[in-house]
Amino acid sequence: MGRLLIVCAVLLTSACKGDAVGDTPRRARAASAPGVTSAESPGDVIIAPPTAAYKTVAVSSPGTVSGTVTLKTALQPNAPTPTGNAAPQCGDSIADGSIVMLGGGLAGAVVWLDGVRTGKALGAERRLELESDRCRLVPRVQAAAVESAVNIVGHDDLRQHLRFTAGGETAPRAAILLGGGEQVIPTELPFKTPGLVAVRDAEHPWTRAYLAVFDHPYHAVTTSGGAFTIDGVPPGKYTLRAWHERTGATAQAVEIAANGSVKVAVVLEGK
To answer: How many CA atoms lie within 13 A of 258 on its CB side?
Structure first.
C-alpha cells in the first residue's frame, strides 16, 4: 500500500485552493445506469431531531434490549450496476451490497430507542473509517454519536465526489473529493446533529453508504446474522425503531424493567 496522504477536504462551506488530489486526475464518468431500489427517498427524515438535549446521568438498575432483525419476505439484491467508462478501475459492473443475510437475519439495519433523553454517557470512541475500496464504500452502514469524525480512506484511482446529505436537508453536510490512489481525508461535518446521512456520488450511482448519527448511546447496527444489543438502558417504556435501506423504518413498543433483559423480534418488510 502506498504512503497515506492527508489531503484537504472539499467542504460545503469552504473549498481548498487547488485540487486536493491533483489537477489532472483520470476522470471516469459512468455511463447511464439503472438506479437501485431503495425504500426511502433522500428527503425522508428517518432519525428525527431531538425534542430536548440529552443528559448523562447515573443509571440505576439498567436493562438491556436485544434481538434479531429479519425480513417478512425475502428481498433479492438489485441487479449489478454497469460502470461505463469507470470499467478500467472498477470492472464492468458493481454487484449490489444492500442485502446481506445469515441464518435468516438481516445485516446492516440500524436499531435505536427513540426519545431517550437521559442515560449513560456517550461512548469514548468517536472516530470512524469509511473506505473506498475496489470502487465500493465500506462499511456500508455505521452508527455514531454527534461530534464524531470519520476518516475517508481512498484506495482507488477513481475520481469520486462524495456528498454527505441527511434526510430532510437540501444541502450536503460535507463534500469530499477522492481520486488518485491512497488518501486519508478526515471530516467532522456529517456529525454535527442527529440524522441519517446518506453518502452518494452523482457520477457513480453504485456508490452509497450510510452514517446514522445520534445524540444518545442507545443504538446499534445489526451484525451479519441480524443480531443487535442495546444495554445500559434506564428502566421504562420506549419506542424501538429500526431502519434498513431496502425496507424503510418501523417502530414497536418495548418496556424494560429494572435490571431486565428484553428480547424482541424486529420484522422489516421490503418495498
So the answer is: 3
